[in-house]
């Protein structure tokens, strides 16, 4: 009985496979009329549109040609376009739909009628209603409008451009600012709305100056930090993405964010308790902008001291053991900045993982990662000399093949500052090279060396 059941099941599966193969073969045997093919992609058009030159294309292909590739001519005729807005070709679309229905047996499904693209009047009406409801403090009504804006942005690149051109980012930031002033910030509906606005803002990066001005108010910054600490996972993710954007675009406002209570703790928490690589990258970039050389000396000194108290240096070194290329570059960038004072370099120097992981990153990740690694090794070596310690950094680095890597670095090229630091390290390490050295063979597999 069991054998019979297995035979029937095998026969059914064989029939299914046979039907699939038949459909694929028949599909290949059907010739799509040239009139229905996009001249750019040569595929069956799903949303045929006409350019000002009278030629019909698939919307996705021609909008990529115009807006992403920056072309202002007709792909077929080469004539200049008098208008960049394609017009739907309803006649061809209906013909394609009828043809798909007729050839359904060959595996062609009827192409659905595309949604009409967003218009400026439609977007303006949504924004006007959002502003009106914002004035009344109607969080639920504003939420509905925010969702509509998000849906338009996600619909297509054309709708996204339409949303942006009508000032949606500015209205969203002003709305975030307005609801951040609510006294009852524990109101669950308000918190959900604020997270939804941040979600919408992440879809329309980068921000213009007007958008940023609404997010730079003291109340807005405090609310962003609050969401970083207490929001949902998606809310915290969107908050740090928005924060990273505004910190990178206006360096004069860094002090205002740093003065928000427990702002640095909120960023470090996202690194200690990662949500996803995107969130980790954004958190590291935000911290990097706060502690890079453009920051005033006293401000930078205070911020780095706060990060040391949070044991960020130790966490970053631990992350270097196993992280992606993108995360590695940012970790090294922040770590290099933290090693700019004595406390930071001391913490790195006393960590047993520091030298081995830095040498491992040389020439393995990227040019940026290599430059940061050389800079940190140089700072460690300088610190060791200043405190009168033995040549521990040199001996440990030589054991894992640092000398050969630095020599190769000078040969393949790097920035002038990196070459100077590498040369200085080589001169110092060469004095102890004869006592201890071990080449990491995997780093030089298939490499012809002259040294």
From TrEMBL:
Entry annotated with the keyword Lipid biosynthesis: no
A GO BP annotation: protein ubiquitination
Domain of life: Eukaryota
The protein's Enzyme Commission number: 2.3.2.27
Biological role: Functions as an E3 ubiquitin ligase.
A GO term, aspect molecular function: ubiquitin protein ligase activity
Catalytic activity: S-ubiquitinyl-[E2 ubiquitin-conjugating enzyme]-L-cysteine + [acceptor protein]-L-lysine = [E2 ubiquitin-conjugating enzyme]-L-cysteine + N(6)-ubiquitinyl-[acceptor protein]-L-lysine
Transferase is among the record's keywords: yes
UniProt cross-references to SUPFAM superfamilies, sorted A to Z: ARM repeat, RING/U-box
Domain U-box: 31-106
InterPro entries registered for this protein in UniProt: ARM-like (IPR011989), ARM-type_fold (IPR016024), ARM_PUB (IPR058678), PUB22/23/24-like (IPR045185), RING-Ubox_PUB (IPR045210), Ubox_domain (IPR003613), Znf_RING/FYVE/PHD (IPR013083)
Species per Swiss-Prot/TrEMBL record: Deinandra increscens subsp. villosa
Annotated metabolic or biological route of this protein: Protein modification; protein ubiquitination
Protein name: U-box domain-containing protein
Annotated keywords: Transferase, Ubl conjugation pathway
Enzymatic class: transferase
